């Protein structure tokens, strides 16, 4: 360290505990423009601008412990400027620290600038060159000569063009037209740069001595000292290995994509893949068959647009959850028709990005079968009216509601007059058709809110709502409906070119509470119906 101090002309002394400057020499005071008194009122970190304060303080600790150190730092001058000095720190008897300084000088390059540049360019793996306006080389480096031009000495390229070297190579292999194809392409890109007079980027490729090579090339116009255009200058990098690697990666990616597509299309489920914004980014062939959309229509389609309005809340809720439990939802085809689907969703990673995959099965046929089974279980197979069991199930809810609204309802027990003689004399086929026609007329006589059921044989039950709490008013309303039913049933029927006429007897009981259960109400209506039959039929009677 003492050897390095021999050239130092500046000195400050600092206290090791608080970092205060306690002395400096005249040379240092003159250098920074402060008086000694002003300098001694400052801390060392006010004098020296260091990039890392903590590191500098650690250096001070090491120096106090007996270590010598050297750092380069800027010293603040009074005029606002800074001067860069090499600082040598020495601890003197552990009581104070001396900092000796000398001006920082950049190292001198012991070689001519032109020679240095020539060495750098020649040893660089990239290709450098300059050409005149006729495309003749003014300058090249070794990489260009060896990789493209096929010469060992850079001087051999001067004054010659890419076409010259191309023709030379082709002449050596006349039977192989693809031996060298780079010359014309490189000349064309030179002409493009000269035409536009702006730096440009190219990817040049062709065959050089039978091998396909790729170059990443930057070219620019070349001007002399007077600003006159004299040619082009360029730099090129051989990216053949990179291209081969990219081709292999692309080939592997293509194989993966083909496998992915094959797996997607091998399933009977429709598979939809959405990004984090709920936009469709992939799908399989069954999706197009299920929804009826084209490729362009499916791309970037929002997930909610596949759902009916009534199902959008459910789809939104399920989309954001990781739960893979399948759920039934009403989806929408391109033509607007709705269909039931079983959907199972799962979050996955695709090419490093989070996606949501929907597996969709059209369960409309299953739903149709379910509806058919349910209909068969709840309806009479001959007349398609609700059967007795389903009627009883609905009636129970009506009874429960009656205690709340206290509105009168009417239970009508309808029995056909003279049906048995017709069925016995004209045959069961005629009898069945007659029951079907009667069922249709009964349905047309009632409102949609009323219920009509085949109770058994030629007996029917009807439940009528009156929307009134007054019993006399309720009787009037029910009577009007009963009279309409009698007129409707009494009209002649044409069955297999035969005219058939029947009538009906109707027993009616009114209720506005659940005091009487269903069986009791049916018995009361049945009794009233027999009273109507005793009086000759084709009439209605209220229970007592």
Overview of this protein structure:
By secondary structure, this protein is α+β, with helices and mostly antiparallel strands. The chain is 39% helix and 29% strand. Strand 18 (451-456) and strand 19 (459-465) form a beta hairpin. The longest helix is centred in the middle third of the chain and has 27 residues, at 240-266. The N and C termini lie far apart (129 Å).
Q: Strand order, biggest sheet?
A: 2-1-6-5-4-3
Overall geometry comes to: elongated
State the distance separating the first and last CA atoms.
Answer: 129 Å
Residue fraction in strands: 25-35%
Number of helices: 18
Whole-angstrom Rg: 51 Å
How many β-strands, per DSSP?
A: 23
Q: Name the helicity range.
A: 25-40%
Structural class: alpha+beta
Low-confidence blocks of residues: none
Name the descriptors:
23 strands; 29% strand; five-stranded antiparallel β-sheet; six-stranded antiparallel β-sheet; alpha+beta; 544 residues
Task: Give a brief outline of the structure.
With 544 residues, the protein is α+β, with helices and mostly antiparallel strands. It is built from 18 helices and 23 strands.
Which helices and strands occur, and which strands form pairs?
Blueprint: E1 10-14, E2 21-24, H1 26-32, H2 36-40, H3 44-47, E3 48-49, H4 53-64, E4 69-76, E5 82-92, E6 96-103, H5 113-123, E7 127-132, E8 137-140, H6 142-149, H7 162-172, H8 183-196, E9 200-208, E10 211-223, E11 229-238, H9 240-266, E12 270-274, E13 280-283, H10 285-291, H11 295-298, H12 312-319, E14 327-332, E15 338-350, E16 353-362, H13 364-378, H14 388-405, E17 409-417, H15 419-426, H16 428-445, E18 451-456, E19 459-465, H17 471-490, E20 493-495, E21 498-500, E22 503-511, H18 518-534, E23 539-542
Parallel strand pairs: 22-23
Antiparallel strand pairs: 1-2, 1-6, 3-4, 4-5, 5-6, 7-8, 7-11, 9-10, 10-11, 12-13, 12-16, 14-15, 15-16, 17-19, 17-22, 18-19, 20-21
Helix pairs in contact: 7-8, 15-16, 16-17
